[in-house]
Amino acid sequence: MRKQIAAANWKMNLTLSQGEQLLKDIQSKPHTLGANQLAIFAVPFPYLPMAQQQLAGKQNVFIAAQNCYSKKSGAYTGEVSVEMLQSLGISYVVLGHSERREYFQESNQFLAEKINICLEYNIHPIFCCGEPLSIREANTQNAFVAKQLEESLYHLSAEQLKQVVIAYEPIWAIGTGKTATSAQAQEMHAFIREQLTAKYGAATANEITILYGGSVKAANAGEIFGQPDVDGGLVGGASLIADEFVAIINALK
Ligand code: PEP
């Protein structure tokens, strides 16, 4: 059975003490994670040690970085390597978020390099894909997402692909309050799984966790996560509110 994941993406929000308080508040509220369910907190780089400390020993809870660089080490001022993340005990990294693609010009090819280095260091990439509004309006979202998958993931072996979590995030639904309907989410998730099946076979494709992201909140998580090919969510805004994120964790199937 593939993993079900509630992943929080704090983006560039909260001070250190606010972040610490949020993690405390979340822990104080009743939530359960089954054997196959994970909660992941993608926090800003400087908060990684705090989050590791806060959540140390918690079953099925992991801390993620929101980015990493594609090179091992060297003269890349301001960048953070996967070796650094590994040395902190970090095991997940969000890659290719649409904000990084848009504001920092991250291409599918560049993301392929980042994925490779993560896998070299046994760090799981949470690979984000998804189309902008213009592509959705032109009804060409399938081809758009298929290209993202092809250019960033299809050089991987099946064993390597199994280390990757995919997050489908239609850009028009991120931070806009506009959620894809559960049917739209299911349709794209099924399409992604079909593509993976064509390339890697059904056994591998069925093991890949595919998260939905785009204005997930307590009120819609149950319905979205209830779709057969949706294995949880990558959550921005609602992950900054303890009650909301706890409810989202509890909505995992
Ligand atoms: C995200 O940060 O990946 C995201 C989906 O944000 P939001 O939940 O706020 O739409």
Short description:
One of its GO terms (molecular function) is triose-phosphate isomerase activity. The chain has about 250 residues and is an alpha/beta fold. It has helices spanning about 15-30, 50-55, 80-85, 100-105, 110-120, 135, 140-155, 160, 180-200, 200-205, 220-225, 240-250; strands spanning about 5-10, 35-40, 60-65, 90-95, 125-130, 165-170, 210-215, 230-235.
The 3D shape can be described as globular
Helix/strand-derived category reads: alpha/beta
Return residue spans where pLDDT drops below 50 for at least 5 consecutive residues. none
Q: Kindly report the CATH topology.
A: TIM Barrel
Query: If helices are DSSP runs of H or I spanning 4 or more residues, what is the number of helices?
Result: 12
Total number of domains: 1
Strand order of the largest sheet: 1-2-3-4-5-6-7-8
The count of DSSP E runs of length 2 or more, i.e. the number of strands, is: 8
CATH architecture: Alpha-Beta Barrel
Order of helices and strands: EHEHEHEHHEHHHEHHEHEH
Pfam families: TIM
GO molecular function: triose-phosphate isomerase activity
InterPro entries: Aldolase_TIM, TIM_sf, TrioseP_Isoase_bac/euk, Triosephosphate_isomerase, Triosephosphate_isomerase_AS
Main location: cytoplasm
